[in-house]
Amino acid sequence: MGIQNLLWQVTKKAFTGGIIGVTISDRCCSVVPVRGDSMSPTFNPQRNSYLDDYVLVEKFCLQDYKFARGDVVVFSSPTHFRDRYIKRIVGLPGEWISSSRDVIRVPEGHCWVEGDNKASSLDSRTFGPIPLGLIRGRVTSVVWPPQRNCMLALFMVCAFYIIKWVSIQLHVPQDSLWKL
Amino acid sequence: MASSFWNIAYQQATKSGVLVAKVYSFLHVTTNYLAFPAYAFGPSMIPTLHPSGNVVLAERISKLTRGDVIVLQSPEDPNKLPTKRVVGLEGDSVSFVVDPGKNDESRTIVVPKGHVWVEGDYTQNSRDSRSFGPVPYALVQGRLLWRVTSKIVKFSLVYINCESSDALLSSERLSVQMLCSQVRFW
């Protein structure tokens, strides 16, 4: 049957694409939305905005777990293992962190994470230092909305002019370009 | 003709590239979401696992229960993967001897939410939750399912046995350098 064959082909292609997408998302990088304002003004600078920031999370750092102070990381919550948080690493293993009452040493294999918006952030000041194995990726840049990402905005402007130039070369009537 | 040679070469290269990508992705998805083989060695799980090494299969699908032998990422070093047994789930009270070499003083801890308490079967020579505390659930990598037992490839189930194994062993320390069972991925 033609339809059955077609469905089977489509399913195979979708399955392969899905598996390759999952592998790229786990090994290279993925794009995740930032919810909440615990990292204001770095991410989500306006409260109650309808546009959440989308950030690029790279996964190459998980090969050897070497991080620097100041890296923004995505990690699984130590208490609710299905949740993921985005916070900044403030203390590396072996360093001393001063919390409200005393000075705490970050144990080996752990790190101290805090949100940039200290007023509303659930971080290591509540649940203590987190093991480095909980980290799921490092945030490198904001990819959406474009006004927060000058590279993406520049790219979109250049792409627009390139398409316009190509269409002129190919003698496409300029009115029909807008109808596409 | 030169152009058709490069065309054919380009087509072959893309076909091989796509095949390699498919195989790699399939292996990655199976290893990360279904089951993975591993090599467990070290003295801390005697008599369940032999100290000189066992080839095991660990699966990531089922929920943990008390008594499972699991592979976890060590909270002290994310590159190390010890194999231990789950002794307490969240909410359980576990008691342990704080320093067996010094005295018999014991402590009782309630395992906090989202954590598990793991101990090696050979408690005299095992670095486990008695040293590094309860382990967050997200650090658990998989539950041991099978073990390859003999030179002729024969599989046997790793039995869930909650009874203490101290009665089978003498209290002398083995003079080995490894302090905990380590697992190597292939």
Explain how this protein is built:
The complex is a heterodimer of chains A (180) and B (186). The radius of gyration of chain A is 22 Å and the shape is extended. The model of chain A has no long low-confidence stretch (mean pLDDT 87). Chain A has a domain at 29-34 and 51-169: Ribbon (Umud Fragment, subunit A). With 180 residues, chain A is an alpha+beta fold. In chain A, strand 3 and strand 4 form a beta hairpin. Chain A has helices spanning 2-27, 124-127, 150-169, 174-179; strands at 29-33, 54-58, 72-76, 84-91, 96-98, 103-105, 110-114, 130-131, 135-144. The longest helix of chain A is centred in the first third of the chain and has 26 residues, at 2-27. In chain A, the strands form two sheets. A seven-stranded antiparallel sheet of chain A has the order 1-2-9-3-4-7-8. In chain A, strands 5-6 form a two-stranded antiparallel sheet. Chain A is built from four helices and nine strands; from the N terminus they run H-E-E-E-E-E-E-E-H-E-E-H-H. With 186 residues, chain B is α+β, with helices and mostly antiparallel strands. Chain B has a domain at 35-147: Umud Fragment, subunit A. In chain B, strands 1, 2, 3, 4, 7, 8, 9, 10 and 11 form a nine-stranded antiparallel sheet that branches. A two-stranded antiparallel sheet of chain B has the order 5-6. In chain B, a hairpin with a 6-residue loop joins strand 9 (140-148) and strand 10 (155-157). Chain B is elongated. Chain A binds chain B through residues 16, 19-20, 22-23, 26-27, 64-65, 76-81, 107-110, 130-135, and chain B through 21-22, 24-26, 28-29, 32, 73-79, 112-115, 136-139. Chain B: GO terms for molecular function: serine-type endopeptidase activity. Chain B: It holds the Pfam family Peptidase_S26. Chain B: InterPro entries: LexA/Signal_pep-like_sf (IPR036286), Mito_IMP1_subunit (IPR052064), Pept_S26A_signal_pept_1 (IPR000223), Peptidase_S26 (IPR019533). Chain B: It is found in: Mitochondrion inner membrane. Chain B: This is Peptidase S26 domain-containing protein. Chain A: One of its GO terms (cellular component) is mitochondrial inner membrane peptidase complex.
